[in-house]
Write a structure and sequence with these properties.
Alpha-D-Glucose-1,6-Bisphosphate, Chain A, domain 3, TATA-Binding Protein, 23% strand, binds alpha-D-glucose-1-phosphate-6-vanadate, binds cobalt (II) ion, phosphoprotein, phosphoglucomutase activity
């Protein structure tokens, strides 16, 4: 093939958000849009990460992925990349990409130094929906801010990109290596099985035999919903083929380019089918629900854990996994190095860390901040309130891992009750027991999606402004909810990375209440149009006689304070959130 230099001009708005660049497919299809971003990424990497390098390109299989893979491959060839690795059909979950970068070794001993991940995660897909792209580094984690800032800076000055236009399209549905010759020597495209490396890694972490026993027990019933995302191919391999679950326990496990037309977001609003099957929500199933249910998002890095008629908040989930990991999961037998959560995530994990005397870190939203801690050996388990949970086995959150972690805990707690007539220890039992020991963090998040960007900015600015007078803030609170305890502290979260000293500012507006309650407000960095305001509401209850309340009831007064304090309706015109989780 030959290398062509194409003239181009900067395109506005290519700033990577919380997790890469996410835009409508129609935006990505504009002339040079994808090309500019990809070339800007190559230009942001050091030479040896491009010339002669091995780079992974794959994603959640959403609409436009197949075209993007061919374009990126041709540009990689032209930029002197030695080899491109593609999961069969262009499919690799985000955690699997992280695993492939860290673990996979090519036939000639080659290792990947980075990856383009093609996903917009939990955002809908299809010709009129979202596409996304992000770059992950040699440690398997998302590019740190220093790199994404450089990429963005490059997009503003780009004037040409390199492409091998005459390189033929590679058939990514067939496993094998295609070899080509270019001006700088050989170039290979290797298509490989999307699940092998990931399954191998999971087997080194968990005791598959004990999970198999759990799944085989007539007392235990199981259900998994991939929401038509890429998780389906891993679910089939792991839950059915390896662990012996019945094929009928899988819902929506065939990846679709448009996720069947719905949001591939594993929460109580969007995972409708699973929620109903688990006996929750308005259209709850009449049939006896399974004991355990879980769902994933489009790229399979998120997870939702459900018990029979029971929802586990993601903030509780990471705390419960951390509290039980050493006993229940072989990978952690020698102890936890530390734990971490994102700032808006509830303090349930903090209490566990304190009790178990573990190192603890609070980082800004987004997985990239956990990577540094893990690389420095400071953190074993971490999580976010947004249905993200994971560990230092890779550098991304991991939806299937979280399910295997829960199944391991269930297998451990039930090791004596699977045979005979002892009662099964259920998901709900485990969570209630946890609350009895550590107290409960009532928690909810209100999302206002696609709000006018100006209005959202004004609302946030006002919330910062009123922080300068807490007595005025407390006056408002007294008026609307006299029983809510007063605010004792308020700030904007700023993070100093303990490993590299880098500082991230404006990471969310916080209000701390005297009784330990907390309100957090932040703007989403993953949307593709307008603004999304997220309100995080949390209240701690230590008294074991009061941990069994309905969460929305318990939080109602604090929610009211949040909405009045932020003047939500005044600024946005919205009388209700788009999604409550
Ligand atoms: C959201 C979540 C955040 C998560 C991010 C990426 O970001 O709040 O916790 O890390 O999505 O997840 P934001 O900026 O919209 O609040 V994923 O599954 O979209 O890669
Ligand atoms: Co995701």
């Amino acid at each position: 093939f030959s290398v062509v230099r194409k003239e181009t001009k900067p395109i506005e708005g290519q700033k990577p958000g919380t997790s890469g660049l996410r835009k409508k497919v129609t935006v990505f299809k504009q002339p040079n849009y994808l090309q500019n971003f990809v070339q800007s990424t190559f230009n942001a990497l050091s030479v040896e990460k491009v010339k002669g390098a091995t780079i992974v390109v794959s994603g959640d299989g959403r609409y436009y992925s197949k075209d993007a893979i061919q374009i990126i491959t041709k540009m990689a060839a032209a930029n002197g990349v030695r080899r491109i690795w593609v999961g069969q059909n262009g499919l690799l979950s985000t955690p699997a990409v992280s695993c492939v970068i860290r673990e996979r070794v090519g036939a000639d001993g080659s290792k990947a130094t980075g990856a383009f991940i093609l996903t917009a995660s939990h955002n809908p897909g299809g010709p009129h929906e979202d596409f996304g792209i992000k770059y992950n580094m040699e440690n398997g984690g998302p590019a740190p801010e220093a790199v994404t800032d450089k990429i963005f800076a490059n997009t503003k000055i780009i004037n040409e990109y390199l492409i091998a236009e005459d390189l033929p399209d590679v058939d990514i549905s067939v496993i094998g290596v295609s070899s080509f010759g270019g001006p700088e020597g050989p170039f290979d495209v290797e298509v490989f099985d999307s699940t092998t490396d990931y399954v191998k890694l999971m087997k080194t972490i968990f005791d598959f035999e004990s999970i198999q026993k759990l799944l085989a027990s007539p007392k235990f019933t199981f259900c998994y919903d991939a929401l038509s995302g890429v998780a389906g191919i891993y679910a089939k391999r792991i839950f059915v083929e390896e662990l012996g679950a019945n094929e009928s326990s899988l819902l929506n496990c065939v990846p679709k380019e448009d996720f069947g037309g719905s949001h591939p977001d594993p929460n109580l609003t969007y995972a409708k089918e699973l929620v109903a099957r688990m006996g929750l929500g308005k259209s709850a199933s009449e049939v006896e629900p399974p004991e355990f249910g879980a769902a994933a998002d489009g790229d399979a890095d998120r997870n939702m854990i459900l018990g029979k008629r029971f929802f586990v908040t993601p903030s509780d989930s990471v705390a419960i996994i951390a509290a039980n990991a050493v006993q229940a999961i072989p990978y952690f037998t020698s102890g936890l190095k530390g734990v971490a959560r994102s700032m808006p995530t509830s303090a349930a994990l903090d209490v566990v860390a304190k009790n178990l005397n573990l190192k603890f870190f609070e980082v800004p939203t987004g997985w990239k901040f956990f990577g540094n801690l893990m690389d420095a050996g400071l953190c074993s388990i971490c999580g976010e309130e947004s249905f993200g949970t994971g560990s230092d086995h890779i550098r991304e959150k991991d939806g299937i891992w979280a399910v295997l972690a829960w199944l391991s805990i269930l297998a451990y707690k039930n090791k004596d009750s699977l045979d005979g007539n002892k009662k099964l220890v259920t998901v709900e039992d485990i969570v209630r027991q946890h609350w009895a020991t550590y107290g409960r963090h009532y928690y909810t998040r209100y999302d206002y999606e696609n709000v006018d960007a100006g209005a959202a900015k004004d609302l946030m600015a006002n919330l910062v402004k009123i922080q300068s007078s807490l007595s005025d803030v407390n006056k408002i609170i007294k008026e609307v909810q006299p029983d809510v305890s007063p605010v004792v502290n308020a700030d904007e979260f700023e993070y100093k990375d303990p490993v590299d000293g880098s500082i991230s500012k404006h990471q969310g507006i916080r209000y701390f209440f005297k009784d330990g309650s907390r309100l957090v407000f932040r703007l989403s960095g993953t949307g593709s149009e307008g603004a999304t305001i997220r309100v995080y509401i949390e209240q701690y209850e230590k008294d074991p006689t009061k941990t069994g309340r309905d969460s929305q009831d318990a939080l109602a007064p604090l929610v009211d304070v949040a909405l009045k304090l932020s003047k939500m309706q005044e600024f946005t015109g919205r009388s209700a959130p788009t999604v409550i989780t």
